[in-house]
Amino acid sequence: MNILIVDDSNDDRRMLCTVLKANGHEVMEAVNGREGLQAASDHRLDLIVSDVLMPVMDGFQFLRNLRKTSSVPFVFYSAVYDGNRDMQLAASLGANGYLIKPMDPLELLEKIERIAAQGGQEQSFSGEEEAEYLKRYSQVVAAKLEEKVRELELDIIRRKKAEEEREELREQLIQAQKMDSIGRLAGGVAHDFNNMLGVVLGYTEMSLEQISPDNPLFANLIEIRNATERSAELTRQLLTFARKQYVAPTLFDLNKNVANMLAMLRHLIGENIEISWLPVAGEANVKMDPSQMDQILTNLCVNARDAIAGNGTVTIETQIVTIDGLSCIGHLWHVPGEYVMLAVSDDGCGMNKEILDKIFEPFFTTRETGKGIGLGLATVYGIVKQNSGFIDVRSEPGCGTTFKIYLPRQMAGVEPTVTERPSHSVVAGCETILLVEDEPALLTMASLVLKKIGFRVLAASSPVEAIRLANDHVGEIQMLLTDVIMPGMNGVDLAKELNALYPEIKQLFMSGYTGDVVVRQDMPDENINFIQKPFALNDLAARIREVLDGVSQGQGAGGKIPA
């Protein structure tokens, strides 16, 4: 058949052309009724398929003018439909059918072929019918235009909403990238700072051993050591934000963890603020380092306390929440699954959007100078992201604030708590240690300490120098003590190179990053010995002794790299 398609929608014309041509029909196209009339005048047609609402000349006018000269079968195919009134007008004009978009292509093909086989119909109009037609036509077209306007309004609203969601996702992506960049920077700063702290701490401890407690300098050195340890705590917060700190994940019931913290939290926030504890019924198991949960609760409760002027209430509650795919729309970092939700709410002053957008940035604080460094919420952010969770915050000025922490729910039974590693006294050694550290001051200090307690030390400032010393050395090397991050070659690759020369060599890695990413990626063995910088000299000596003697490790500054 020769079929004319009249439709102002390119997509609809393309779909019809594809279906009809695939079934052997010849197809012509027009975009409005005026073009359709011209095509019907110039060609012999077996069927016309036309839309209703079109520019220049709509489908009803097209059919009415067509019927003055032609009885070719005519089918309306339209998405705008107003019930019987449309069909009655179409039939009165001589239409052979009225089909509603969208329709299954095979069903559509079957119907228009059946209509074409029935043939068209003649149609003539008297003056009275002309007036009635104009009246009915005006009513139908007006109704269709109103419906079309409503559709356009809804489409504009949908488009505007979609654009707002895209803009929100773009802002979330920019924020996530910014936080990731700041995290990498914070981790790098903490790594280098830990090296310097290690030097200060090491020389301070060596100085303390060489002077009497009665010496006036002894107290000064104690203060230096204390300040160094406090600085190390600051770098641990930076590493938490950068998600590069040492953690020992344990399966535990969050309800019990919070309950055990309540007494401390009440003391922390003061008597003028009440804590309301609303645990979910049953177990709320999560897997993370329990000390990290303590950090989250402490930071959130301190922020809640500072937001409340006078008396108030902090509400802590837990829930079991299922996040589906629909809930993740518009939230870049949400992942479907079952979560334990920890909410900390206050009835304090609240925050405006400008502050809310910056609260997780490190060093951002609304407190007075000297009252806070702005790492509390950045630390919370880092902990939650490290444990595959996410955070929602709701706040308005004068209406308080709610932080909701979502952590993946674990269904297994709670694991027993690992006991702390017992302290070790320093035991002298006589083994040979290959010490590799690219920070000169730290290399010198560590070399002095190890020699002082009896070890033979081969000190190298780079992996290349370490390999040369190992090749030139006569005799055994019992241990490799190496930094992880170094220019040219990292400590893990160096260890692999030395294994070929000394298959029995023991290895102890050290780094300003704890549980360093390089170690995790390049060494599949979970039992990698590790100590975090900065370390006390006694801890370093004890750790070396443990590794040389093959003593099993627990948690602490030294230990196995977590998987």
How is this fold's topology laid out?
Blueprint: E1 2-6, H1 10-22, E2 26-30, H2 33-42, E3 47-50, H3 59-66, E4 74-78, H4 84-92, E5 97-100, H5 105-118, H6 127-210, H7 216-241, E6 250-253, H8 254-269, E7 273-278, E8 285-288, H9 290-307, E9 312-323, E10 337-346, H10 353-356, H11 376-386, E11 390-395, E12 401-408, E13 432-436, H12 440-452, E14 456-460, H13 463-472, E15 479-483, H14 491-501, E16 506-511, H15 517-522, E17 529-532, H16 537-549, E18 558-560
Parallel strand pairs: 1-2, 1-3, 3-4, 4-5, 7-9, 13-14, 13-15, 15-16, 16-17
Antiparallel strand pairs: 6-8, 9-10, 10-12, 11-12, 17-18
Helix pairs in contact: 2-3, 4-6, 6-7, 6-12, 7-11, 8-9, 9-11, 13-14
Describe the structure.
It is a single chain. This protein has 563 residues and is α/β, with parallel strands linked by helices. Helix content is 47%, strand content 18%. It contains 16 helices and 18 strands. It has helices at residues 10-22, 33-42, 59-66, 84-92, 105-118, 127-210, 216-241, 254-269, 290-307, 353-356, 376-386, 440-452, 463-472, 491-501, 517-522, 537-549, and strands spanning 2-6, 26-30, 47-50, 74-78, 97-100, 250-253, 273-278, 285-288, 312-323, 337-346, 390-395, 401-408, 432-436, 456-460, 479-483, 506-511, 529-532, 558-560. It has a six-stranded mixed beta sheet, with helices on both faces. The chain has a five-stranded parallel beta sheet with strand order 2-1-3-4-5, with helices on both faces. Strands 7-9-10-12-11 form a five-stranded mixed beta sheet, with helices on one face. Strand 15, helix 14 and strand 16 (506-511) form a beta-alpha-beta unit. Helix 4 (84-92) crosses helix 6 (127-210) and helix 13 packs parallel to helix 14 (491-501). It is elongated, with a radius of gyration of 38 Å. Residues 369-374, 414-425, 514-521 and 552-563 have low confidence and may be disordered.
